[in-house]
């Protein structure tokens, strides 16, 4: 699976640890930056992550900032992307199972490395409940996220 990961300056250390762990786990990972902890604007990295996921270059994305809130908002500006702010594995799994989330966001100031790994594992290992079922209740709702007239 091809993944993309991006952060702001508050989450560069967490991003680096997660990137290395994901690569060691066998994933192909595009690190979209930044590489150093100098102040940057999280929307720039959120938009970049959303673009990579929306165009299919990456199958799923991981967005990180201090709280996870700002970068998740910026990622969700792209209607082809569904980014869920998660803080524990159940929310990460439900984001996939019910909402077909293709990105998750976490806050480096709120989430430790082991919890972040547990969230990512749940996110990557959980399938969408209505995969292949265009008439399913979850798919109907997910379709409305990108097109309210559905």
UniProtKB/TrEMBL annotation:
<feature type="binding site">
    <location>
        <begin position="66"/>
        <end position="70"/>
    </location>
    <ligand>
        <name>D-ribulose 5-phosphate</name>
    </ligand>
</feature>
<dbReference type="InterPro" id="IPR036569">
    <property type="entry name" value="RpiB_LacA_LacB_sf"/>
</dbReference>
<comment type="similarity">
    <text>Belongs to the LacAB/RpiB family.</text>
</comment>
<dbReference type="GO" id="GO:0005975">
    <property type="term" value="P:carbohydrate metabolic process"/>
</dbReference>
<feature type="binding site">
    <location>
        <position position="141"/>
    </location>
    <ligand>
        <name>D-ribulose 5-phosphate</name>
    </ligand>
</feature>
<feature type="binding site">
    <location>
        <position position="137"/>
    </location>
    <ligand>
        <name>D-ribulose 5-phosphate</name>
    </ligand>
</feature>
<feature type="binding site">
    <location>
        <begin position="8"/>
        <end position="9"/>
    </location>
    <ligand>
        <name>D-ribulose 5-phosphate</name>
    </ligand>
</feature>
<feature type="active site" description="Proton donor">
    <location>
        <position position="98"/>
    </location>
</feature>
<protein>
    <submittedName>
        <fullName>RpiB/LacA/LacB family sugar-phosphate isomerase</fullName>
    </submittedName>
</protein>
<feature type="binding site">
    <location>
        <position position="99"/>
    </location>
    <ligand>
        <name>D-ribulose 5-phosphate</name>
    </ligand>
</feature>
<dbReference type="Pfam" id="PF02502">
    <property type="entry name" value="LacAB_rpiB"/>
</dbReference>
<feature type="active site" description="Proton acceptor">
    <location>
        <position position="65"/>
    </location>
</feature>
<dbReference type="InterPro" id="IPR003500">
    <property type="entry name" value="RpiB_LacA_LacB"/>
</dbReference>
<feature type="binding site">
    <location>
        <position position="109"/>
    </location>
    <ligand>
        <name>D-ribulose 5-phosphate</name>
    </ligand>
</feature>
<keyword id="KW-0413">Isomerase</keyword>
<dbReference type="GO" id="GO:0016861">
    <property type="term" value="F:intramolecular oxidoreductase activity, interconverting aldoses and ketoses"/>
</dbReference>
């Amino acid at each position: 699976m091809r993944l993309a990961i991006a952060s702001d300056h508050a989450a560069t250390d967490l991003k680096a640890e997660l990137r290395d762990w994901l690569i060691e786990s066998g994933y192909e990972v595009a690190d979209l930056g930044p590489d150093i902890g100098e102040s940057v604007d999280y929307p720039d990295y959120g938009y970049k992550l959303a673009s990579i996921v929306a165009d299919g270059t990456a199958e799923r994305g991981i967005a990180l900032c201090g709280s996870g809130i700002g970068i998740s908002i910026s990622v969700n500006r792209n209607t082809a992307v569904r980014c869920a702010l998660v803080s524990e594995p159940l929310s990460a799994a439900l984001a996939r199972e019910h909402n077909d989330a293709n990105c998750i966001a976490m806050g480096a100031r709120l989430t430790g490395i082991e919890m972040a790994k547990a969230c990512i594992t749940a996110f990557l290992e959980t399938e969408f409940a209505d995969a292949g079922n265009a008439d399913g209740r979850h798919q109907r709702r997910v379709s409305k996220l990108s097109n309210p007239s559905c």
